[in-house]
Amino acid sequence: LEYLNKKMEQSRQETEKDLFAKQIAETEREMDNINQMTQRQLLGNRFDDHDWIKISNIDFDGSRRAEDIKNLWQNSEHPSINQAEWSKEEVEKLFQIAGLKGCVDWEWIASELQTNRTAFMCLQKYQELNKELTKKEWTEEEDHMLIELVQKMRVGSFIPYTKIAYFMEGRNSTQLLYRWSKTLDPMVKRGKWTPAEDEMLLKAVEKYGIRDWFKIQEEVPGRVDAQCRGRFRNTLNQNVRRGKWSEKEVSDFKMLVEKHGVGKWAKISAELTGRTEMQCLHKWKVISGVK
Q1: Which domain holds residue 101?
Q2: What is the CATH number of the domain that holds 205?
Q3: Which of 168, 223, 167 is nearest to 194 (CA)?
Q4: Could you write out the DSSP letters of every residue in 232-287?
Q5: Same structural domain for residues 140 and 172?
Q6: More confident position, 104 or 116
Q7: Disulfide-capable partner of 121 in 90, 117, 237, 260 (CB 3.0 to 4.6 Å)?
Q8: Can you list the positions of beta strands (E) in the chain?
Q9: 257 in the same domain as 232
Q10: CB contact at 8 A, 274 and 241
Q11: CATH code of the domain covering residue 145
């Protein structure tokens, strides 16, 4: 507008002034329309196409690949994505829908869930709560076969778990993804955390909060979400109490175990301020003989 107004003031011909006046009026109408738009209308659908290469080069100075930016926007950063805690009803519905599709088509499952979760979020929650994924122990032969198949069939960072499952009797694509990402992937670091990793983790938690571990893991190279979550909650969280349990804490702990059940340490820890899941597990082992 400033540019158009300046050009109109400098113009000596009435026809030019009229033309600039029309352009200014049109621009003002467009700006008014934009100001009245909601955030959803401004940002559009998370799968809308954008010039990701331009965004990569200009906004990120080429430090991020266009494909990575696109995936992050569509699967994590778009405001339409539901980042709230999962409700009990939502989890129950997730398992019902996943059962209909054999836990394979997570895009369809996320769509049917109708709670604005992404396919990856649905898969992640299913893995977290489905005990069947870890009941059957993996053999050394299965591990070797999975490693070999991943090396042969992967295309860049994409691993076709559904196709790989055809060659591994008794294992589905979800189990393969879980085993690879949590145990076999050589890019994932194991063992003791370094001071530098702790510093990166604390900065990421300060940036994203204590719920979005998928985003946090991206700030700590080589560590997955579960590792970041466990390290922070059990070691780095300054709000965690380290000393002896008070009588009230023990009493509250027993009530919460009765409420949620043995093994629900995440839920119990969330309601028992200042104690981690591991502390709750250890305390239960100590007093498990007490009624």
Answers
A1: 88-130
A2: 1.10.10
A3: 223
A4: IIIII-TTS--SPPPHHHHHHHHHHHHHH-TT-HHHHHHHSTT--HHHHHHHHHHH
A5: yes
A6: 116
A7: 117
A8: none
A9: no
A10: yes
A11: 1.10.10.60
The stretch 92-108 carries a mean pLDDT of: 82
Closest Cα to residue 252, out of 232, 238, 266, 273? 273
Question: Residue 118 — very low, low, confident or very high, per pLDDT cuts 50/70/90?
Answer: confident
What CA–CA distances, in Å, run from 159 to 69, 153, 220, 283?
Answer: 19, 7, 22, 41
Q: Torsion angle, CA of 242/246/251/252, rounded to 10 degrees?
A: -50
Alpha carbon distance 86, 80 (integer Å) = 16
- Give the pLDDT confidence of 17-48 residue by residue, as tens digits: 788 788 888 887 877 776 775 666 666 777 78
Within a domain: 65: no
User: Measuring CA to CA, which residue among 130, 40, 31 is closest to residue 81?
Assistant: 40
∠81-217-268 over CA atoms, to 5°?
80
For the record, the structure tokens of 147 come out as 């490693």
* Residue from 289, 274, 200, 212 nearest 244 by CA: 274
Q: Do 34 and 42 touch, CB atoms closer than 8 A?
A: yes
What domain count does the chain have?
A: 5
The yes-or-no verdict on residue 290 having pLDDT over 80 is no
Q: What is the pLDDT of residues 234-266, one digit of tens each?
A: 888 877 787 889 999 999 999 999 888 888 887
- Structure letter (DSSP) for residue 158: B
